[in-house]
TrEMBL record:
InterPro entries noted in UniProt: AAA_22, ExeA_AAA_ATPase_DNA-bind, P-loop_NTPase, SPOR-like_dom, SPOR-like_sf
CDD domains hit by this protein: Ras_like_GTPase
A Gene Ontology molecular function term of the record: ATP hydrolysis activity
Domain SPOR, residue spans: 439-517
Stored PANTHER family: GENERAL SECRETION PATHWAY PROTEIN A-RELATED (PTHR35894:SF7)
Highest taxon above the source species: Bacteria
Gene3D superfamilies on file: P-loop containing nucleotide triphosphate hydrolases (3.40.50.300), Sporulation related repeat (3.30.70.1070)
Chain segments annotated as transmembrane: 270-290
Keyword vocabulary terms for this entry: Membrane, Transmembrane, Transmembrane helix
Short name of any one Pfam family annotated for the protein: SPOR
Source organism: endosymbiont of Galathealinum brachiosum
Designated name of the protein: SPOR domain-containing protein
Length: 526
């Protein structure tokens, strides 16, 4: 049961936090798992792919174990929804009171469409008519008694021996299950495939919390800082259950700080800082103003004064020539002269005609300048104005005749994808391919020694182990993605294939190859 703390279940947010974050439900509470609520990551994807591969291509006992709250049940619920080729999934939840008979009854529930529940063996055998292999997937296996576990594996061997039914088993259990099985059964380590639930890294922890909040309806900015994530990672054991229990109080504290105003002490400190800032900025502004005022008012004794009588205008450029400096003229007189409304007659040198001209410049209070020019100049200006007013002819836009061109698309030819270079190299080394496998007797058997996502992995392995014509490769599909497999030998029956494993080189034997029928290989090629 969940522990209680201050009348609130550990892992649940307070009502204040739920209201503030506008959540529709508790983000860290246990719930019915859906495809949207399942948190998937790269580690879990690898586990799912590996289990799917082992289910299809091996007869090993499959075991997934991990600590309490590590996400085994979530993975179990997600995995039983997968579609595994040629496999009939018989899923069940183990209970402490279960016996072999009760487990058989749970198996029969999944086979009701095949016949009477009292004829379990017949229903299991009829699955072969549909090219399906029965698979028991059991959660919470650690609660079963040792006696029930022993009877389950004895029943598995009995089905294979008496009815040729290959019943496969995948167990989900707490840590330590592998030790229990080695003590109470004769199953060896090389007959089991064990997966351990991974711990979440700090980055995955952050993604997990964000995912749970989004599923609860939160759409705001991230609540946790990087420092919060690091603290949670140190406190939690890397399991989802511990992370949820540790995260809830942290979020409650963050929300409380956002809602409640700062304490009085912080307000006083903030006011003092603001007052000091205003004083410092004000003092700086006053000091700067006084310094600039003193600089502007200071007038050295030898400052040059402009003499108004010496202002001249260049007749060519109509620019005012720099006045003559006279230190003896009073500043007030200069200002009075510049502001005067009287007309000054200034003599200009006409460099173009060689004759002096007289131009009257009137200086008014609105700073406008009026110039009198000769009559000849006025005539020239009028002539230039008349020339500018002549209307230019308007060009009519050229009419371009539009033509419609019908484009007929060429038929698209589907390109033939070339064979991967690594697979071509395998063929050059003498390895057989899918064509050879399809020509073999479907009653024969082979040894599967390797499966990989990339063809380059097969090529590297084949070169390291000097594989040749007694080995074949083929392409199949695993979880809707390409998967490449190496099989070795061509044996008349299953027993001959099993004996051949002992004759393999030590490096190949260390990979724990398993026997595989040619019929199943040929079906995978279709």
């Amino acid at each position: 049961m969940a522990k209680k703390n201050n009348n609130k279940i550990t892992g649940e947010l307070s009502q204040q936090s739920l209201d503030y974050l506008t959540l529709k439900k508790q983000p860290f509470a246990r719930e019915i798992l859906t495809e949207e609520s399942f948190f998937n990551n790269q580690s879990l994807t690898k586990i799912t792919d590996s289990l799917s591969h082992q289910i299809q291509f091996s007869d090993l006992l499959l075991l997934v174990e991990g600590s309490v709250g590590s996400g085994k049940t979530s993975l179990f619920r997600q995995f039983i929804q997968s579609d595994i080729a040629n496999t009939k999934i018989l899923s069940m939840q183990a209970e402490a009171t279960d016996t072999l008979v009760q487990i058989q009854q749970k198996m029969s529930i999944h086979l009701q469409d095949l016949g009477d529940a009292n004829h379990l063996e017949d229903n299991l055998k009829s699955l072969q008519m549909f090219d399906q292999t029965p698979l028991i997937i059991m959660d919470n296996t650690h609660v079963l008694s040792d006696t029930t576990l022993q009877e389950l594996f004895r029943y598995q061997n009995q089905l294979k021996r008496e009815n040729e039914i290959n019943l496969k088993i995948l167990l989900f259990a707490n840590s330590g299950m592998i030790d229990t099985l080695q003590k109470i059964t004769d199953i060896q380590t090389d007959q089991m495939y064990v997966q351990t639930m991974p711990e979440l890294s700090p980055k995955q922890l952050d993604s997990y919390i964000t995912h749970k909040l989004r599923c609860a309806g939160y759409s705001g900015e991230p609540l946790l800082e990087s420092s919060d994530i690091q603290q949670l990672f140190k406190k939690a054991n890397g399991t989802p259950l511990d992370i949820m229990n540790q995260t809830a109080p942290v979020i409650d504290k963050i929300v409380a700080n956002k809602i409640k105003p700062p304490t009085a002490g912080w307000i006083k400190t903030l006011i003092i800082i603001l007052i000091l800032s205003v004083i410092i900025i004000g003092s700086y502004i006053i000091y700067t103003y006084l310094l600039n005022d003193r600089t502007n008012n200071a007038l050295p004794a030898d400052t040059a004064i402009f003499e108004p009588d010496s202002v001249k205008v260049n007749a060519n450029t109509q620019e005012i020539i720099e006045p003559v400096i006279n230190n003896e003229t009073d500043i007030a007189e200069v200002i009075n002269v510049l502001e005067s409304d009287e007309t000054d007659e200034i003599s200009l040198d006409a460099t173009q005609t060689g004759e002096p001209q007289t131009v009257h410049v009137e200086t008014s209070t609105d700073d406008s300048v009026i110039m009198e020019t000769t009559e000849a100049d006025n005539i020239n200006i009028k002539q230039e104005s008349l020339q500018e007013t002549v209307d230019e002819p308007v060009l009519e836009p050229e009419v371009v005749e539009e033509k419609t061109v019908e484009i007929i698309p060429e038929p698209i030819q589907e390109a033939v994808k070339p064979l991967n270079p690594a697979l071509l190299q395998l063929n050059k080394m003498g390895l057989q391919d899918a064509n050879w496998l399809n020509q073999q007797n479907s009653n024969n058997w082979a040894l599967q020694i390797l499966g990989a996502r990339e063809p380059e992995t097969l090529l590297k392995f084949a070169r390291q182990n000097n594989l040749s014509a007694d080995t074949a490769w083929y392409k199949t599909w695993l979880t809707s993605k390409p998967y490449y497999v190496l099989v070795h030998g061509n044996y008349i029956n299953r027993d001959e294939a099993r004996v051949a494993i002992a004759a393999l080189p030590p490096k190949l034997r260390s990979l724990k190859p398993w026997v595989k029928s040619m019929k199943s290989i040929q079906q995978a090629l279709k």
